[in-house]
Amino acid sequence: MSSLENKIALSTCCCSHRFEDGYAMLEWIASLGFNYAELSHGISMSLVPGIVKAVADGVIKISSIHNFCPLPIGINAPVPNLFKPSSSNRTEVSLWTRHTVETFNFAQSLGVDKVVMHSGSAWFFFESPLKSIHVWLDHSDLKIEDLASNEEFIKLRDRAFRRIRKASKKHKDILIQNYKSIFESAEQSNVYLGIENREGFIELPLDEDHEDFIRGFTLESPMRYWHDTGHAEIKAQYGLLNHSKRLEDLKDYLIGFHLHDVNESGKDHQEIGTGIIDFQMIKEFLDAEKQAIVLELSPALSEKSILKSKDAILNLF
């Protein structure tokens, strides 16, 4: 347990909006008993000098960085999907490449070898097939655990996914090509790309394609897998994946976790141990020696909830 206790990290997503000084932000995380922090995708340029100094002074270590970090100039709020590697627009892909490589360089300057990546989404010229699902969910009083067995929801979900699958195929080759285009930069910066599983229905790779997409790259490449427990649980409750099977299938590629819980209403980034996720199952795949273990918690949670979440994970061991 000592290894996990020493290496468990807190994501800055819960606090970066409250600080104007990166040094003070990392001091606050360290004051809660964390030796590591993850720099999430809400790090503005103004926080960077303090972050660099805090790391140099030994205030805290950085476990991982979430693309884009720091934020592009002029952007002051988290927008990890601002530029998408799934896009066919050359200008957008050029900007994605530029800011991704800048993230790699920043990671290398801090001695970090893991970068969390989003992979874009499918796109619909006309109305998204998700609209009918969202309307239905807004008017439903079902708990999230009941969705995968509800016939009306299943029909609605499967109808939407016929369109989503068709649209996603147009982006597969583009996404692969754009990831391969940054491999050399990743290798020069000594970083691995943790391709995160996402909560959005149309975000790529689709859950049914995620294993094949990751395994399409060899372990000699920088391509790896990053597992978000809340996102996976939401998709599992929708009947789109098997949570434990996903971890088993991609355990050889697994370099990090975002740990948070999901409540009965389907809201994620909640205090660990208060929701529906089976963390006893998650425990079997945690390896603090090889992975970044990161608490990614809502900014709405208190310091007490943050500490209780950390204790909940440590108590598993």
Structure description:
With 317 residues, the chain is of the alpha/beta class. It has a single domain, classed as Alpha-Beta Barrel (TIM Barrel). 41% of the residues lie in helices and 12% in strands. The chain has helices spanning 2-7, 22-31, 48-56, 90-109, 130-139, 151-180, 183-188, 210-215, 229-237, 243-249, 279-283, 303-315; strands at residues 9-11, 36-39, 61-66, 114-117, 192-196, 223-228, 254-259, 292-295. The chain has an eight-stranded parallel beta barrel with strand order 1-2-3-4-5-6-7-8, surrounded by four helices. The protein is globular. The model has no long low-confidence stretch (mean pLDDT 95).
What is the terminal-to-terminal distance?
6 Å
- The CATH architecture assignment turns out to be Alpha-Beta Barrel
Q: Whole-number radius of gyration?
A: 19 Å
Determine the strand fraction and express it as a percent band.
Answer: 5-15%
- What do we call the CATH homologous superfamily? Divalent-metal-dependent TIM barrel enzymes
User: What is the residue-averaged pLDDT?
Assistant: 95
The helicity comes to 40-55%
Form type: globular
CATH topology-level fold name: TIM Barrel
Number of strands: 8
CATH class: Alpha Beta
Structural class of the secondary elements?
alpha/beta
Q: Give the neighbour order of strands across the main sheet.
A: 1-2-3-4-5-6-7-8
Q: Ranges with pLDDT <50 over ≥5 residues?
A: none
Order of SSEs? HEHEHEHEHHHEHEHHEHEH
Sheet of most strands: 8 strands, parallel, barrel
Number of H- or I-type helical stretches: 12
Number of domains: 1
